[in-house]
Amino acid sequence: MTRRAILEALSDGPIAGPAIAEELGISRAAVWKHVETLREAGLEIESGPDGYELVAVTGYDGPAIECGLEAPFTVEYHDSIGSTNDRARELAAAGASDVAVVADEQTGGRGRLGRAWESPAGGIWTSVLLRPTTSPANAARFTFAAAVAVARTAREAGVDARIKWPNDVVVDGDKLAGILTEMEGEAGRISWLVVGIGLNADVDPDVLPAGTTSLRAEGGDVDRRIALQGILEGLYDRRDLDVLGEWRELSTTLGRRVRISTADGTVEGEAVDVTDTGALVVETADGRETVTTGDCEHLRPA
Ligand code: BT5
User: What class, spelled out in words, does domain 2-57 have in CATH?
Assistant: First the structure.
């Protein structure tokens, strides 16, 4: 966390090296080394008569993403990795928490049920490791909180994003983002929870499966650092909140005719509500059904 503290001091700069050293209880040489590392990571740090000052942040890596991030996550950045969810699970097994694993590219990105998630360079691929003190029954809330955070961030980037149950963010029906929440828990208690978020940011949808889109393709702002910070802060701020109201507001599924394929068959009808455990309530020809999870297709009005 020293690097983070130095970054904060530099953002409020100019500040003299010895003053930083004193404030953080480290040596002047250590301050100098940290500053050099940050410069190598692409942060523009000027040194003038009054000391160091952070003047610009460019790039997309750990220090750049942590700079100005208003959520207490450590960012572990990889140019390329198999799956950020797999890496976050490894970190969970090693006892870590509050880490966001971020990659420019994934070579083995995963969706639900072992499906592949295409993750070319330029996307936002991240997995946030949390240890919430709640029961496994509440895990879906984190998927919902992530969906709200992603949809809001995309909307701030100028894209008309909405949430599609259970785990997508879409623009006019085309998939912009997907969420994969995984966890380990027992006896009414979550041990760790990993929220995997894939957002097609600065990506050409031509290299993605049909029916997908990206921030770039929708003419949105594709500053990944700003977008990712928005998502991480949005998720963090909602970690203990009831997000159902916000989810309902941003949902494009509620009020529609849907067909949901589940392991037990197909449910068709009008999506009328979601429950606080993330299930979809569907008004079918035979009455109301509550569907825990599945693949949801939006149908044209009957
Ligand atoms: C999801 O699964 O939508 C969850 C995707 C989660 C991806 C993130 S990226 C960071 C983290 N690390 C990982 O390894 N995973 C998470 P599902 O609802 O099962 O949808 C999967 C389907 O989406 C695929 O079968 C394709 O049809 C489609 N798809 C694949 N790549 C896509 C992409 N980049 N954009 C939109 N749709 C895609």
Answer: mainly alpha
Query: Which residue from 276, 277, 258, 278 is spatially nearest to 268, judged by alpha carbons?
Result: 258
From 3.40.1350.10, 3.30.10.20, 3.40.50.2020, 3.30.930.10, which CATH number describes the 62-250 domain? Answer: 3.30.930.10
- How far is residue 103 CA from its own chain's centroid? 12
- For residue 118 and ligand 1, the question of a CB distance below 6 A is answered with yes
* Nearest CA, atom 3, ligand 1: 178
Ligand 1 pocket test, candidate residues 78, 117, 163, most atoms within 8 A of CB: 117
What pTM did the predictor assign? 0.92
Ligand 1 close to Cβ of residue 214 (< 6 A): no
Q: Is the CATH number of domain 257-299 2.30.30.100?
A: yes
Gap between the Cα atoms of 130 and 92, Å rounded: 9
Q: Give the CA-trace dihedral at 97, 144, 210, 115, to 10 degrees.
A: 50
Distance 302 CA to ligand 1 centre (A): 29
Residue pLDDT, tens place only, 175-220: 999 999 999 998 889 999 999 999 999 999 999 999 999 999 999 9
Going from N- to C-terminal start, the domains of the chain cover: 2-57, 62-250, 257-299
